[in-house]
Write a structure and sequence with these properties.
About 55% of the residues lie in helices and about 0% in strands. It is mainly α.
């Protein structure tokens, strides 16, 4: 059993025609035209002409009937909210800048360590990518020093640079 199809009355059709004349946005004009055509033709025929599915035509008609032209406008999709905000974010900033954790121990921060410490202290689950984005918004990065050989000596490195090649 399919869902109930919406029917457009003659008054709603006239309203749609009047609204279509005042709107300049192409997508909304197209949707209004489809609703107007659906008032006097089958949804399958209108869908074929507008190159959309039958369900789309019925949905446009239902939205127009319920909300008017505003129902045919595209809505903002939004994004996920930031998990680490306010005093928690300031505390994390302090940890990174002082290179110390919540208990005052010296720490070389990595994203993984930060995520674990945030889970322990604030009970907030935050992933690596989200943590990196949060730090970027705070104008911070977790920089790791380049690995060095255990026998590395800055003096010997400078001496090596100064020798001309034979």
């Amino acid at each position: 059993m399919g869902r109930k199809k919406v029917s457009i009355t003659e008054t709603e059709k006239m309203l749609a025609i009047a609204e279509r004349e005042t709107i300049s946005a192409w997508a909304i004009v197209q949707r209004l035209s489809a609703v107007i055509a659906y008032a006097s033709h089958k949804a399958e025929d209108v869908a074929q002409i507008f190159d959309v599915s039958t369900e789309t035509i019925i949905r446009w008609a239902a939205k127009f009937k319920k909300q008017g032209v505003d129902g045919l406008r595209d809505k903002a999709k939004g994004h996920r909210l930031q998990k680490l905000t306010g005093t928690n974010a300031e505390t994390v900033r302090k940890w990174i800048l002082t290179r110390k954790d919540a208990s005052g121990r010296s720490v070389k921060w990595t994203l993984k360590r930060l995520c674990i410490e945030i889970k322990k202290q604030f009970d907030i689950d935050i992933g690596h990518s989200a943590m990196a984005e949060t730090l970027a918004k705070m104008n911070l990065t977790v920089k790791r020093p380049r690995p060095m050989h255990y026998k590395y000596s800055p003096e010997k490195a400078e001496e090596f640079k100064k020798k001309p090649l034979k």
